[in-house]
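Ticket #4471: structure export looks truncated?
Reporter: QA, pipeline team
Priority: medium

Steps to reproduce: submit the single chain below to the structure queue and open the exported record.
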Amino acid sequence: MNRLSLFIFALILPFLASCATAPPAVKEPTVFYPGPPDPPRIQFLRSFSGSDDLVPPKSAFASFVTGGRDKILILDKPYGIAGYQGKIYVCDTNNTVIVIDLEKKTFAPMAGVHGQGKLVQPLNISIDKDGNKYVADPLRGQVVMFDKNDFYVKAFGPVEGWKPVDAAAFEGLLYVVDEKNSEIKIFDIQAGALRNTIGKKGEDAQKSQLGLPTNLAFDREGYLYVSDMGRFQIVKLDRDGRSRGDIGSLGRVPGAFARPKGIALDRQNRLYAVDAAFNNIQVFTADGQLLLFFGQSGRGPGDLVLPAKVALDYDNVKYFQQYADPNFQIEYLILVTSQFSPRRVNVYGFGREKGRTYLTDEEIMKERAEKELKKQNDQPGKTGDADQKKD
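Actual output as written to the record:
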């Protein structure tokens, strides 16, 4: 090696050292819900808060060779979220819709959010079976539709006189939460025209009136669920707006609500409901019985700070099984946004531990009812009261 080569090697040695493979990230503790001894159903898997959580930034040497460091994108105040075919879409309300591409490992704004597709305050997003996206933007005053390739298609709404905060498509119709008028507006997706309104105050007594609706979702039978902060409930409606039951009430006990937000239903019609006051998600059976809850206020794995939206994702399980406990098999993902947490997008897995027997939801509720009845019968004084009655 000549002197020039030695000089060049000495010059780049610090950069070579800095670009050495970084040690693997410290494995986060395994967090299951519910905790032992109950069989685990939900595991916290990982989180995303910025582009460097998906792709590590360039080393000093790589930056020297290529002429600059990568720009790191950070989620500011995420709200709506949805997963679809290798991607996670996040509404960053102070920015735009960010696409986390799990296959290509990119973290960037959605392709069509410019020109007619420009967003002002993207709040919530939903995706239909064909990959069309519907973004509710209350400051723009419209719901903006993008196609399967993320490009602008059309916008719904009159711009003024309403406040669209969430939207979901079902059988050719787009159902939109109008927070300003406390109602659900229904648009024809193909024509773009307003077809009907439900939940409106002043309607006949047979139809449900909404207080302060925030989010909506459909179950597999086509019933519409609406989270209502004014009523502190999740309201179940048919598509004509007639009440089919309520879930929860105002309170601070499990099964009650203080600030209900985003909701979602899985393929078994389990209802997931965010409570921004409790910093958790409650999971209910199809008939409104509380199964379990997960999340709590904090900054650790699985913790939440002002959660906003929950979405269920069956498409992207393969990208996250690697983070699961080896004995835990994931059935689907639970995506939750946490607005002021160091972990902005949280990914949980719903599943079961291999080799373990699980009760059905109905069996769980029956067993719980029997335990509660036994507890009541075993309370002090019960036997004495019975003896007095016999005397």
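Status: closed, not a bug. The export was complete when the record was re-opened. Leaving a note from the reviewer for reference: The first helix runs from residue 3 to 18.
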